[in-house]
Write a sequence for this structure.
């Protein structure tokens, strides 16, 4: 069982389960209007909690704040506007971002210090030729996704079709068994089209003209620290 920071520090009062707008913005680095766009796309979900004197207040779960931090990093490092960021994050296979935040939240200790470092088990997002978005995970984690091609840990999420739109690619397109399932779930023609684009994405990655990468595990760890009132600095920020 994962303890909260308060429990680890010996405090009696448990931490709140939800966080307000100001806390979510400060921890994730995502402006409030952008958080709303992420929510409208279905990438994150705010909760309405009653106010003492009537009305409701928007509150965010820790998981949603950490997922928003990934979106903020994509927007900053890939120079994507919030509309395509929201599309990409919402269209990623359900449970992917939750799996990342859960795996990290259980390993963070407030005693680690403010400098957020990389580890061999970190997850990365790679943008290939400013178009194809890949999720790169440690081989062990790739096994938690049932649709992922066997033996692959560089998983295509999809591709930008314009500066505002994103098209998801099913991981099933990466294996003969998956294509058979895809043909039954959609149609043979759709499965063939997905296979063609999938192969193009893999070939583009192998012969990339440009690759931009983000260590999203570090982004999540930094957001977790800020959300719990702790300083957080990525190495690049510390050097600046």
């Amino acid at each position: 069982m994962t303890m909260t920071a308060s429990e680890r520090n010996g405090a009696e009062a448990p931490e709140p389960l939800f966080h307000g707008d100001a806390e979510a913005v400060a921890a994730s680095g995502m402006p409030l209007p952008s958080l709303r766009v992420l929510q409208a796309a279905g990438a994150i979900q705010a909760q309405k909690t009653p106010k003492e004197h009537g009305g409701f207040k928007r509150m965010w779960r820790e998981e949603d704040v950490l997922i928003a931090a990934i979106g903020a990093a994509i927007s900053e490092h890939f120079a994507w506007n919030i509309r395509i960021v929201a599309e990409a994050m919402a269209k990623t296979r359900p449970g992917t971002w939750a799996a990342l935040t859960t795996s990290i939240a259980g390993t963070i200790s407030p005693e680690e210090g403010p400098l957020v470092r990389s580890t061999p088990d970190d997850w990365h997002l790679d943008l290939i030729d400013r178009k194809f978005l890949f999720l790169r995970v440690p081989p062990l984690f790739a096994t938690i996704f049932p649709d992922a091609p066997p033996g692959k840990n560089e998983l295509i999420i999809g591709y930008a079709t314009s500066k505002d739109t994103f098209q998801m690619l099913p991981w099933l397109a990466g294996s003969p068994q998956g294509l058979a399932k895809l043909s039954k779930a959609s149609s043979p023609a759709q499965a063939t089209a997905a296979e063609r684009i999938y192969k193009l994405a893999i070939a583009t990655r192998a012969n990339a003209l440009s690759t931009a990468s983000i260590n999203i595990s570090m982004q999540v760890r930094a957001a977790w620290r800020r959300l719990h009132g702790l300083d957080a600095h990525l190495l690049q920020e510390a050097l600046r």
